[in-house]
Write a structure and sequence with these properties.
4 helices, 12% strand, alpha/beta, 4-stranded parallel beta sheet
Length: 121
Amino acid sequence: MRILMSIHHELNPDQGAPGVTWNLAREFPMLGCPTEILSFSSMPRAASRFSEKAKRLTYPWHVADQLQKRLGEYEVAELSSGDGWLYQSLYPNRTKLYVTRSHGLEHIARDARVQQARSGK
């Protein structure tokens, strides 16, 4: 089973979510599952000049492009939250297994924003 993973950050094994993704991608082959990662680092060379915000805004298009071109190579697409929405909206494919994981920080950040809003901050 081949796995394609995605993370909307530069791929850095020493940073939070990118590091977790990198470590998972290293472990899956030991279980017989070749794995590849899409990240800001895999975007076209021109994107290296983009601001962080521009990378975040254009990354779903990069993922959609790569999935459209190469999804047949993979049985599982593990797409970090928000990374696959464009592809899945444009090209619904019921024969692929899409998996989403969360490192949990989205929920904590949301709760903090709600609490700040309620307290008038």
